[in-house]
Amino acid sequence: MKVKVLVFDLDDTLYNEIEYVKSGFKSVSSYFANTYDINEYQFYMDCLDILQTKGRGEVFDEVLKKYNIFSYKNLKKAISLYRSHNPNIILPTESIEILQYYKNKNIPLYLVTDGNKIVQAKKVEALGLKEYLKFIYITHRYGKNNAKPSTYCFEKIAKREKVKYSDIVYIGDNINKDFVNIKKLEFRTIRILQGMFMNSCREINYHAEVTLNSLLDIKNLLKV
User: Fold this and answer.
1) I need a surface site. Which of 89, 121, 123, 199 has the fewest CB within 10 A?
2) Which neighbouring-strand residues pair with 170?
3) What tens digit of pLDDT does each residue of 158-215 get?
4) Tens of pLDDT along 132-155?
5) Which runs of consecutive H residues, i.e. helices, occur in the chain?
6) Domain extents for the chain?
């Protein structure tokens, strides 16, 4: 697969998103433990347990109810702390290796990531990604309607680099939205089997062109 421009997803592609989730839970746990004199570690573990059993959307509601401190004010505070905290996350060695390898090959590297603008910007900062990337597209900065599966930010990259869509390779993990629309425009696509969507299945038009088990496998696939 020939490549002129390489575009990465962020969460569960360049790093394991659960590390951000844990970091956010620790920030929330610290606040409520100090405010209500409850066990910080147990509060944190309860957050993780609820995440596993009920999913991310109900964690703070459920844990606050468990400790009999639920109120909409406390719920709002928990969400605010989670989103605004400075995450304790690091870029995995294999991601550093891949980014540095293609940067050294003078391949323009981009990021396209969905999510809260403040949250995603803090992740980018904590991971030190600006060192490797030419430009970072946080899709919600352009309106939520331009989040994936929208092709908006990908088309902006093609225009910026003055290349054909087929010269751009996108690497992501979420089969539900990452590949389905950009494939129609002939962007090249690679799915990394990791993270919360690694076992997800969809119709064939949602699939990436190539599926790999590790970012490091990209070196054997992409030619510059």
Assistant:
1) 199
2) 7, 189
3) 999 999 999 999 999 999 999 999 999 999 999 999 988 888 899 999 999 999 999 9
4) 999 999 999 999 999 999 999 999
5) 17-36, 40-54, 59-66, 72-84, 93-104, 117-127, 152-161, 218-221
6) 5-16+92-221, 18-84
